[in-house]
Amino acid sequence: MHDTGRAHREMLRRVTRHLATTQDLHTVLASITSGLVEHTGMLFSHIWLYQHHAECERCRLREPRRTPGERALHLAASAGAISHADEAIHYLPLHLAVPPAMVARERIPYRSQEMLQDVTPATPPALVELLRSVGGRGGAAYPLVFRDELLGAIGMVSGSPLDDEEFELMGIFADQAAMAIKSAQLFQELERYRDRLQDENAYLQEEIAVERGFEGIVGESPALRAVLRKVKQVAPVETTVLLTGETGTGKELIARALHHGSPRHDRPLIKVNCGAIPQGVVESELFGHEKGAFTGALQRRIGRFELADKGSLFMDEVGELPLDTQVKLLRVLQEQEFERVGSTRLQTVDVRLIAATNRDLETEVAENRFRADLFYRLNVFPIRVPPLRERPSDIPLLVSHFLAQFQRKLAKPLRSVSPDGIERLQRYAWPGNIRELQNVIERACVLSQGPVVEIIDELRAPDGNGASSPQPVAPAAAGILSLEEQERLHIRRALAATGGRVHGPDGAAVLLGINPSTLRSRMKKLGITKPTA
Known about the structure:
Distance between the termini: 87 Å
Number of helices: 20
Oligomer: single chain
Low-confidence stretches: 208-215, 462-479
Number of strands: 19
């Protein structure tokens, strides 16, 4: 050691000036330990942080499934003559009779003039061997405390005993180090909240910009009232809900009703359409990624699960998820934890999941396209949203609702739909459900010349089996293909060109510019069961 405290005071000035301008926690910890070794002649120094298992990167890598448990000292930075002894002192519960644990527990500094003489049975043998090999004599440990909050402990060993002035100066430095560590932790937390708020804001702006099908749940039919009764029952609890039903039935509106009726209503409902995400970036979209995790990952991105923390996540078209992503989704639902793409750090979340699908997931499970364990985890409280053909009494109410919308949007004095039009609308089977009804009404409103709107679309009447059949084609148009026949031909050509593939970058859905689930739905409706040339 130096003969006077001058070098130590100079060290304090240099290191504390550096710490005052550093905001990264890892840099702060490394600066503290290396400053002790480089400027005071310490043989080695360590810093332990008082934290849970999940907060320690080394512990998460070693035991990713371990429960958090009580907090303990976790080795966070070392400098100087370090060796395999680091492993032995990496995890120190506060009840241990070793200096770092004792000073953290009692919040009183510790000093030893002869470390080898003061070892206890709890001292790891690897540390005793290190002290012998480097000639360690004097040692000190200090609690790292900021405003009565225990942050951790700092320990150091020198080749000679520490005098009173040196011991006091190191204590002053420990206080400065605690302030720097707390500042870096607060900055890290602030950055995390800032990133999350930015992502939430961007997400909400996207939601505002999206043209929603309709603003509220409209209808008084027994089928709809039965659904709303279930919503009222399950909304206040944390149970996972699976919404099933055909495309266009309003599953997203039911999801919003579930969220707004829950204790999480003051947090956003985050929405993700699993069928609209390219397969290569599904995990990034759901769980986020770190900068440089893959080509094009120019900055860190927070995923939808992290964005929905303390709120609700609506996963639409969940049946579209690839099998490997289904495994990771199951883990999040069971453990409430995940890792961003390109990171080994475990993220914990508190998310209420609402899933939706227009597929028959039980059939998907039987055909090995959907994991059975995930299905049972999602299917805790299933709610089937009825198609529009099962609630024809709601059609007049929906028509009035849409008329009010389009009256404002088109600035036209639209008052009602003609009685004949309403009758035609109620006879129609509505394969596209409420979304199709909205489109039909909008087209009629655009073409309307007066306050009474006529339904000009060539709606299909249901046949004897309850399905829809096209109305007769006029003789003058006998040589022209109907839109349905033209669509069937176009899809078959796309399937032939892609070898029958529906999904993927070389699939027919990409070629046609539509969602794979939409294409499958159209194929089913048009009776296309296999690719034909």
